[in-house]
Amino acid sequence: MKFSIIVPCYNVGNYIEKTIKSICLQTYSNFEVLLIDDGSTDNTKDIILKAVNGDQRFIYYYQKNSGVSAARNKGLELSRGDYIYFLDGDDAIEPNLLEVAEKHFRSNSDVEMLSFGYKINKN
User: Fold this and answer.
1) Where are the alpha helices (DSSP H) in the chain?
2) d(CA 51, CA 35)
């Protein structure tokens, strides 16, 4: 089972490294990450390319600014996974998120969608 993590990015240079690191810490490894840069004018691209450091699971795509929905739709168009996870460029995920999702999908074949809670960190 492969997951596609779609991350729309617009001027998230201050946050995207933490987002990428949280993805890299996943205990489940069969995933791809589509980082859709929606016309950023800051250092988002440079930080992404440095943070992914050639990891083939990460795909960087640049498009002119068209809005978050267009960025997500481009990610959907490019994705090759069995399941999609949308993650914002200023968010982080728990290390076992994909593992928990995979186990749930395998044990409940009639489930097509999962929703997760969230917590707000002020640091």
Assistant:
1) 16-24, 44-52, 68-78, 97-107
2) 12
Cβ contact 5:34 at 8 Å: yes
Sheet hosting strand 58-63, strand order edge to edge: 58-63, 31-38, 3-9, 83-86
| Mean pLDDT of successive 10-residue stretches along the chain, which has 123 residues | 97 97 97 98 98 96 98 98 96 96 91 82 68
Q: Whole-model pTM?
A: 0.94
- Of 60, 57, 32, give the one whose Cα is nearest residue 44: 60
Question: How many residues are listed for the chain in this entry?
Answer: 123
